[in-house]
Predict the structure.
Amino acid sequence: MIIAVSTFLLLSGCGSEPAPAPPAEPAAVKAPDGPPGADGPEAIPVPEFEVSADPTVVARGSRVFETRGCGACHQFGSRLVGPDLAGVTTRRTPKWIARQVLFPERMTREDPVAKQLFAELMVQMTNQRVDPSEIGPLVSFLATHP
Ligand code: HEC
Protein backbone atom coordinates (compact mmCIF):
# COMPACT_ATOMS: atom_id res chain seq x y z
CA MET A 1 0.00 0.00 0.00
CA ILE A 2 2.75 2.37 0.96
CA ILE A 3 4.56 1.39 -2.23
CA ALA A 4 1.45 2.11 -4.31
CA VAL A 5 1.04 5.53 -2.73
CA SER A 6 4.64 6.52 -3.25
CA THR A 7 4.51 5.29 -6.87
CA PHE A 8 1.52 7.50 -7.43
CA LEU A 9 3.31 10.47 -5.95
CA LEU A 10 6.33 9.74 -8.12
CA LEU A 11 4.18 9.52 -11.24
CA SER A 12 2.24 12.66 -10.51
CA GLY A 13 5.54 14.39 -9.81
CA CYS A 14 6.81 13.33 -13.23
CA GLY A 15 3.59 14.40 -14.92
CA SER A 16 3.78 17.92 -13.64
CA GLU A 17 7.50 18.27 -14.37
CA PRO A 18 7.38 19.74 -17.91
CA ALA A 19 5.09 22.57 -16.77
CA PRO A 20 7.02 25.83 -16.97
CA ALA A 21 7.20 28.15 -13.99
CA PRO A 22 3.77 29.75 -13.63
CA PRO A 23 3.67 33.20 -15.22
CA ALA A 24 2.91 36.18 -13.03
CA GLU A 25 -0.25 36.80 -15.04
CA PRO A 26 -2.29 34.19 -16.92
CA ALA A 27 -0.80 34.10 -20.39
CA ALA A 28 -3.28 34.50 -23.22
CA VAL A 29 -2.05 32.45 -26.16
CA LYS A 30 -2.68 34.34 -29.39
CA ALA A 31 -4.79 32.33 -31.79
CA PRO A 32 -2.80 31.55 -34.94
CA ASP A 33 -4.14 33.15 -38.09
CA GLY A 34 -4.74 30.32 -40.48
CA PRO A 35 -5.16 30.54 -44.26
CA PRO A 36 -8.61 31.54 -45.58
CA GLY A 37 -11.22 29.00 -44.57
CA ALA A 38 -9.07 27.56 -41.77
CA ASP A 39 -11.51 28.86 -39.15
CA GLY A 40 -14.43 27.02 -40.78
CA PRO A 41 -17.47 28.56 -42.48
CA GLU A 42 -18.12 32.15 -41.34
CA ALA A 43 -21.87 31.40 -41.39
CA ILE A 44 -21.47 29.03 -38.43
CA PRO A 45 -21.55 31.20 -35.30
CA VAL A 46 -18.63 31.09 -32.91
CA PRO A 47 -18.39 32.76 -29.48
CA GLU A 48 -15.66 35.18 -28.47
CA PHE A 49 -13.13 33.27 -26.41
CA GLU A 50 -9.51 33.19 -25.38
CA VAL A 51 -7.06 30.28 -25.37
CA SER A 52 -5.27 30.46 -22.05
CA ALA A 53 -2.31 28.73 -20.41
CA ASP A 54 -3.69 29.56 -16.96
CA PRO A 55 -3.77 26.23 -15.05
CA THR A 56 -7.16 27.11 -13.51
CA VAL A 57 -8.68 27.59 -16.96
CA VAL A 58 -7.02 24.41 -18.25
CA ALA A 59 -8.40 22.45 -15.28
CA ARG A 60 -11.87 23.79 -16.00
CA GLY A 61 -11.49 22.68 -19.62
CA SER A 62 -10.46 19.21 -18.48
CA ARG A 63 -13.69 18.97 -16.47
CA VAL A 64 -15.71 20.11 -19.49
CA PHE A 65 -14.03 17.37 -21.56
CA GLU A 66 -15.03 14.79 -18.94
CA THR A 67 -18.54 15.96 -18.13
CA ARG A 68 -19.52 16.51 -21.79
CA GLY A 69 -18.53 12.96 -22.66
CA CYS A 70 -15.79 13.75 -25.20
CA GLY A 71 -13.74 10.85 -23.84
CA ALA A 72 -16.36 8.36 -25.05
CA CYS A 73 -15.08 8.96 -28.58
CA HIS A 74 -11.72 10.68 -28.23
CA GLN A 75 -8.43 10.17 -26.50
CA PHE A 76 -4.98 11.68 -26.77
CA GLY A 77 -2.37 9.53 -28.47
CA SER A 78 -4.60 7.22 -30.51
CA ARG A 79 -7.78 7.15 -32.52
CA LEU A 80 -10.92 5.88 -30.83
CA VAL A 81 -14.34 6.46 -32.45
CA GLY A 82 -13.20 9.96 -33.37
CA PRO A 83 -9.77 11.28 -34.35
CA ASP A 84 -6.80 11.31 -31.98
CA LEU A 85 -7.01 14.74 -30.33
CA ALA A 86 -3.27 14.93 -29.63
CA GLY A 87 -1.97 17.93 -31.56
CA VAL A 88 -5.43 19.04 -32.69
CA THR A 89 -4.68 22.67 -31.76
CA THR A 90 -1.65 22.59 -34.04
CA ARG A 91 -3.61 21.30 -37.06
CA ARG A 92 -6.82 23.31 -36.55
CA THR A 93 -7.45 26.88 -35.46
CA PRO A 94 -9.27 27.57 -32.16
CA LYS A 95 -12.30 28.93 -34.03
CA TRP A 96 -12.49 25.84 -36.24
CA ILE A 97 -12.44 23.63 -33.14
CA ALA A 98 -15.14 25.75 -31.49
CA ARG A 99 -17.37 25.39 -34.55
CA GLN A 100 -16.74 21.64 -34.69
CA VAL A 101 -17.64 21.21 -31.02
CA LEU A 102 -20.71 23.47 -31.04
CA PHE A 103 -22.11 22.54 -34.49
CA PRO A 104 -20.67 19.16 -35.53
CA GLU A 105 -23.52 18.29 -37.92
CA ARG A 106 -23.31 21.64 -39.72
CA MET A 107 -19.53 21.29 -39.96
CA THR A 108 -19.93 17.89 -41.66
CA ARG A 109 -22.22 19.50 -44.23
CA GLU A 110 -20.49 22.85 -44.70
CA ASP A 111 -16.77 22.53 -43.87
CA PRO A 112 -14.46 20.63 -46.27
CA VAL A 113 -12.12 19.36 -43.50
CA ALA A 114 -14.95 18.10 -41.28
CA LYS A 115 -16.58 16.54 -44.33
CA GLN A 116 -13.33 14.71 -45.08
CA LEU A 117 -13.04 13.43 -41.49
CA PHE A 118 -16.60 12.15 -41.66
CA ALA A 119 -15.86 10.40 -44.96
CA GLU A 120 -12.85 8.68 -43.37
CA LEU A 121 -14.39 7.71 -40.03
CA MET A 122 -17.99 7.17 -41.14
CA VAL A 123 -19.28 8.34 -37.76
CA GLN A 124 -20.99 11.67 -37.18
CA MET A 125 -19.66 13.52 -34.14
CA THR A 126 -22.59 14.28 -31.85
CA ASN A 127 -23.55 17.63 -30.39
CA GLN A 128 -22.57 17.32 -26.72
CA ARG A 129 -24.32 20.56 -25.74
CA VAL A 130 -21.18 22.34 -24.70
CA ASP A 131 -22.06 25.80 -23.43
CA PRO A 132 -20.40 28.59 -25.44
CA SER A 133 -18.82 29.83 -22.18
CA GLU A 134 -17.05 26.45 -21.87
CA ILE A 135 -15.32 26.66 -25.25
CA GLY A 136 -12.36 28.81 -24.13
CA PRO A 137 -11.45 26.46 -21.26
CA LEU A 138 -12.06 23.39 -23.46
CA VAL A 139 -9.75 24.58 -26.26
CA SER A 140 -7.19 25.69 -23.63
CA PHE A 141 -7.25 22.13 -22.29
CA LEU A 142 -6.87 20.63 -25.78
CA ALA A 143 -3.85 22.90 -26.31
CA THR A 144 -2.06 21.17 -23.43
CA HIS A 145 -1.90 18.02 -25.62
CA PRO A 146 0.31 19.20 -28.47
C1 HEC B 1 -20.05 10.06 -30.72
C2 HEC B 1 -18.61 10.23 -30.70
C3 HEC B 1 -18.05 11.61 -30.45
C4 HEC B 1 -18.21 12.41 -29.33
C5 HEC B 1 -19.05 12.15 -28.10
C6 HEC B 1 -17.36 13.57 -29.56
N1 HEC B 1 -16.73 13.48 -30.76
FE1 HEC B 1 -15.43 14.80 -31.54
N2 HEC B 1 -15.38 13.77 -33.28
C7 HEC B 1 -16.00 12.57 -33.50
C8 HEC B 1 -15.85 12.19 -34.89
C9 HEC B 1 -16.38 10.91 -35.53
C10 HEC B 1 -15.10 13.23 -35.49
C11 HEC B 1 -14.73 13.39 -36.97
C12 HEC B 1 -15.79 14.24 -37.66
C13 HEC B 1 -17.06 13.46 -37.93
O1 HEC B 1 -16.96 12.34 -38.49
O2 HEC B 1 -18.16 13.94 -37.55
C14 HEC B 1 -14.80 14.18 -34.43
C15 HEC B 1 -14.03 15.31 -34.61
C16 HEC B 1 -13.59 16.12 -33.58
C17 HEC B 1 -12.59 17.14 -33.68
C18 HEC B 1 -11.76 17.45 -34.92
C19 HEC B 1 -10.56 16.48 -34.89
C20 HEC B 1 -9.56 16.73 -35.95
O3 HEC B 1 -8.66 15.90 -36.11
O4 HEC B 1 -9.65 17.74 -36.64
C21 HEC B 1 -12.48 17.74 -32.46
C22 HEC B 1 -11.57 18.89 -32.08
C23 HEC B 1 -13.42 17.09 -31.59
N3 HEC B 1 -14.07 16.10 -32.30
C24 HEC B 1 -13.60 17.41 -30.27
C25 HEC B 1 -14.59 16.85 -29.47
C26 HEC B 1 -14.91 17.33 -28.14
C27 HEC B 1 -14.19 18.45 -27.42
C28 HEC B 1 -15.95 16.57 -27.69
C29 HEC B 1 -16.71 16.73 -26.41
C30 HEC B 1 -17.43 17.99 -26.26
C31 HEC B 1 -16.25 15.59 -28.75
N4 HEC B 1 -15.42 15.82 -29.80
C32 HEC B 1 -17.23 14.62 -28.66
C33 HEC B 1 -16.71 11.83 -32.57
C34 HEC B 1 -17.12 12.30 -31.34
User: Anything to note?
Assistant: The chain has a mean pLDDT of 86.
